[in-house]
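README: folding subset

This subset contains proteins for which both the sequence and a predicted structure token string are available. Records are stored as plain text. Below is the entry for Lysophospholipase L1 (222 residues), shown exactly as it appears on disk.
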Amino acid sequence: MKHIRGFLICFLFLQCLSLTGFAQQSPPFFNEIETFKKQDAINPPPKNAIVFVGSSSFRGWTNVQSYFPGYTIINRGFGGSSLPDAIRYAQDIIIAYQPKQVVIYCGENDFTAEGVNADIVFDRFTTLFEIIRKDLPKAHVVFVSLKPSPSRLKFLPEMVKTNAMIKEYLKQYRRTGYVDVYSKMLLADGTPMPDIFKADKLHMTEAGYVIWQKAIKPYLKK
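--- output ---
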């Protein structure tokens, strides 16, 4: 009996430790967002800038400022993120900066989760847009279309649907823009340009970012 009681006590103790650890577990990308906050505390970014927010396609654009001289860019891309992550941290990486414009590239990673389709990604985008429009009613919001990554060919039909839905949605609102990079990254036969992607067939080379710069620049606000 004593052995059973002792076993139960140990079991319950371990369960408590497990639950405590679970409760204290940080949400995805918490450390990356904290790093941004620390950087901002040391070197506060200016208000009324342009925030680039999204996944690794923006995070990897480490020299983005050099592509847009004359504009003040705050790059808050964080790798592997999806729209729920952008929604979770919107106050920290968008609203806090009080930008005049928000440029979004996010949604591509969403499709790697089980059961996610164009309708789900579209709904997630509208949620993010509504947060931005509510807290920053005068800010311009630009969505950069999901790109045709060769490593994600099976998702492209749904991505095309998502792009079309978001494009139509944004037409309803003033101070918005839709940047088509998808079609500009295709060969004449409709397949993705291989030389603008790195070996992983997901992230872009400098040649890819040159295409993005030309597509995005006309939408940026001085």
